[in-house]
Design a protein that fits this description.
about 500 residues, alpha/beta, Rossmann fold, GMP Synthetase, Chain A, domain 3, 2 domains, about 25% helix
Length: about 500
């Protein structure tokens, strides 16, 4: 079938199966007809407020049916959705809105840009708008996603891909008619894409308001779901469930579990492969910018443990040193990615930052890693997170993976703090759900880490270190602790 606009794709499925359920959210079920009708009515309301093709609509809503309707309504006008976390502070929101300059803001009040109108989540379009016709238009940019960023500065990544698709085809790895669970926050790239790629190809989506380990397994069982993408933090919390609780659910419908968003610790990927089987486990690596990406199956992972796979869809990856010289297999350096040869330039642009490009169209997103002799990529950490202690480069992710094996550890973040002797010393911030003795923890780490990788100090906290998308902002954690001596 020829390509059609995202808005038309939703209408196409609504015409073909109006009474089938498209979306389940909490206790709410939306048929295809309802999803199409409600998003069209909302689009007409946005149109009345001045939204036209090429505009941006900032959507500051939690996971909800209203979030999805707002995005689809935006596409139906040829505008670009800009999801923003509903948990963002007023200062964070304001910085993003100042960059985007949206024509309309959807949210519960708060920061604004000039006289930009703002609609609340509870807004219902007037009945008289129901019959107003809508033109069929394609958004020039399909989405504008805020960066999870480690710099502390606002940045928006605008995907220049036009919002059109074949509704009877497959979008990337999402097959037509998929049954997909979305446990992550919709303001984040992974859940956003998995949700809408499923809907645009006529699939069925179960959207969670927030991740819960036990509820995730129950929903897979209840709805015979086939696909789910999880960040490693979610996988860890599911694995930590008591075995009887974890194994009481029927997960036979699952065809693919994808770990993404952050490197998955080797032990955790190995545990999941043993639990569900290698043919159902995958790990994906990429970025919101989508200039490069890799994928590895569980079967491949067993032969290349710790790898995030090989490049997909004609993309290329190479490792270079600080001078830009390509490094041989096995050596750690900067990961450079290159889009397919059919793509002449990066299919994105930044608001609030510059793209770091190299000769030949190579792009760096700040990750460090190495390739093995077979071309499989292994990530070490982000360049900005690397700690130089005693002249050695140390990557926090390796230490955090070891920490999270210890009983009672929910999550962790390892940062470098100033040290007059070493330059930087390793400080571990540990989120725990039970009392932990620092000396016992340190002793356990000696079995897994070299001496120079052992934290010099520990700080135990009972608040989440990672956000809903599994991201940790080390720059903020470092800044908060630079000028004070942390507890042991």
């Amino acid at each position: 079938m020829p390509q059609m606009s995202y808005g038309s794709a939703i209408s196409y499925h609504a015409q073909n199966k109006p009474d089938d359920v498209a979306l389940v959210f909490e206790d709410e079920c939306l048929s295809w007809a309802a999803l199409d009708q409600r998003s069209s009515a909302m689009a007409r309301a946005y149109q009345e407020l001045g939204v036209v093709t090429g505009d941006y609509v900032s959507i500051i809503l939690p996971n909800s049916a209203e979030f999805l309707i707002a995005v689809i309504a935006t596409w139906k006008l040829g505008a670009t959705p800009n999801p923003i976390s509903s948990h963002a502070t007023a200062v964070e929101c304001q910085a993003i809105l100042d960059l985007v300059q949206p024509r309309l803001i959807i949210g519960e009040g708060g920061p604004q840009v000039g006289d930009t109108p703002c609609l609340r989540q509870s807004f219902v379009p007037p009945q008289e708008l129901a019959g107003t016709p809508l033109p069929d238009v394609v958004s020039p940019f399909c989405r504008a996603i805020c960066s999870g960023g480690s710099t502390g500065r606002a940045k928006v990544i605008v995907d220049k891909t036009p919002a059109s698709c074949d509704p009877d085809g497959q979008i990337y790895t999402v097959a037509q008619g998929s049954r997909t669970l979305i446990p992550g926050p919709m303001y984040h790239s992974g859940p956003f894409l998995n949700c809408f790629w499923t809907l645009l190809t006529g699939g069925f989506v179960v959207l969670m308001s927030r991740f819960d380990a036990q509820r995730t397994l129950a929903l897979i069982d209840e709805h015979a779901l086939e696909y789910i993408a999880l960040v490693p933090t979610m996988m860890h919390r599911i694995w930590r469930l008591p075995t009887p609780e974890r194994e009481q659910w029927d997960l036979s419908s699952i065809r693919r579990v994808v770990s993404s968003g952050a490197p998955c610790p080797d032990w955790l990927m190995g545990a999941w492969i043993k639990w569900l089987g290698p043919e159902r486990l995958y790990e994906a690596y990429g970025a919101t910018e989508r200039v490069g990406g890799t994928l590895i199956s569980g079967t491949e992972w067993l032969a290349h443990p710790g790898s995030v796979g090989k490049p997909t869809l004609g993309r290329e990856i190479k490792i270079v040193d600080e001078q830009g010289r390509e490094l041989p297999a096995g050596e750690v350096g900067n990961v450079l990615m290159k889009p397919p040869a059919t793509q002449a330039a990066p299919a994105f642009f930044y608001m609030g930052a510059e793209i770091e490009t190299r000769d030949g169209g190579w792009v760096s997103l700040g990750d460090m890693g190495r390739l093995d002799g077979d071309g499989y990529l292994y990530l070490t950490d982000r360049k900005t997170d690397m700690i130089v202690s005693g002249g050695a480069n140390i990557y926090p992710a390796e230490i955090e993976a070891a920490l999270e094996l210890y009983p009672g550890v929910v999550s962790s973040a390892v940062i470098g703090l100033p040290d007059s002797d070493l330059g930087e010393r390793l400080h571990a911030i540990v989120e725990c759900d039970a009392p932990i003795d620092a000396e016992c923890l340190g002793q356990a780490l000696t079995q897994r880490l070299a001496k120079n990788k052992l934290p010099r100090s520990y700080e135990f906290v009972d608040f989440p270190l990672r956000n809903e998308a599994g991201k940790v902002r080390r720059s903020e954690l470092r800044a908060e602790r630079r000028d004070k001596k942390p507890p042991l």
